[in-house]
Specification:
Layout: E1 9-13, H1 17-30, E2 34-38, H2 43-46, E3 51-55, H3 62-72, E4 81-85, H4 88-96, H5 98-101, E5 105-106, H6 112-119, H7 121-130, E6 138-141, E7 163-167, H8 170-174, E8 185-187, H9 190-202, E9 209-213, E10 222-229, E11 235-246, E12 256-261, H10 265-278, E13 282-290, E14 297-303, H11 311-315, H12 320-328, E15 337-338, E16 344-346, H13 350-355, H14 360-369, H15 385-405
Parallel strand pairs: 1-2, 1-4, 2-3, 4-5, 11-15
Antiparallel strand pairs: 6-9, 7-8, 7-9, 10-11, 10-13, 11-12, 12-16, 13-14
Helix pairs in contact: 6-7
Amino acid sequence: MAARFGHLLPIVLGGDIGAYALARQLHEATGNRVALVASEPIVAITRSRYIDVVHQEAGAPGEQTVAIIERLTADRPERSAVVMANTDAAAALIAANRERLEPTCVLPFPDLEVMERVSDKASFSRLCAEVGVATPREVIVDLADPACTPPLDPEPLGVPFPLVAKAAIGSDYDRVSFEGKRKIWFIDDAQELAAMWQALESADYRSPFLLQERIPGDDTAMRSVTVYMDSTGAMRLVGSARVLLEDHAPWLIGNPVSMITEAFPGLWRATEALLTHAGYRGFANLDIKVDPRDGRELFFEVNPRIGRNSFYLSAAGANPMTVMLDDLVCDMRGPRTEVTTQVLYSLVPYRLLRRYLADPELRGRADSLARGLADPLRDPTERSVRRRLTIEAQRLNQYRKFARHYPISSNDRSR
């Protein structure tokens, strides 16, 4: 445990797996208890031995969340608390209230103007073009414009079917809820596109939406890069992973659930160029896909936060919280940490993962790493029997969930 952080109060916003992973990493970096602000936290959190849950009502306005942070940190000295979160909406809330929370709290997020530039899919594509980073073909449909007529045929706009559709500003999308909501929409034809526009209209969604060419390739074509840009603007920590399997439930589609950490120096250089050009500070997580047709590495987005699966860095030997706290709390910046150790990270049972690995080489690599499989929820220091049994039951439930949302065809049963 790092004695230099003994005075620190770690605060986490959120109650899901990603929030628990942040709390675990903060606890391991500091040795301190973690205050977690949430309305309905998962059992892994409520039964944790080192997390103190601060309940707030479901759907509470951001002002209430900020007020809770201020109450938790009242009368504390400068740089004696840190606030972490793992959703776009929470990240935007923290950035928007920087003046209220600093200097008591350190906030590893970019300024709001920079956050909006990199997380808005339209301006993100322009930033990528300026530094020579490739992105998929896309078109922005401005649903915020009352005169906008959403297109039913995007091909004349340069994006033919099939395509992917998603919110251009993730924090705006986080704030709405409606039946049939999906994180990402996979659209094959005009009928499906019209149904999506109708769903957004019924939800009174008024924010730009992105139509993007669908790049072929399965989940294993995806790459994840996680970085920390320090307070001087230098890349102080970088790690990456090859995705093996993603969640396929509509509300979580695209979230990796199994990955192998792997160094991708070319992606690291491109990420550094992009974020340096943007004037970025704090944690960022980037989604990239390798186009199997030509090998191009296409950058999909920058998440202005550390990402739901940041624990893959800790599993590979580099707790990102320590690097960040050294910078923001202690004003200490050592050499860049580059994560090169290979580990298997998985939120689903290994036997389930293996069913979906068609590539023999990837199966072999996963097999060689399976004994040390890392899951952030499986913290050996947690002592609650109920917690452990709940987590294992939820892991087993993944078989049913994947059978429903991502069935394996009869031709693939030999995997």
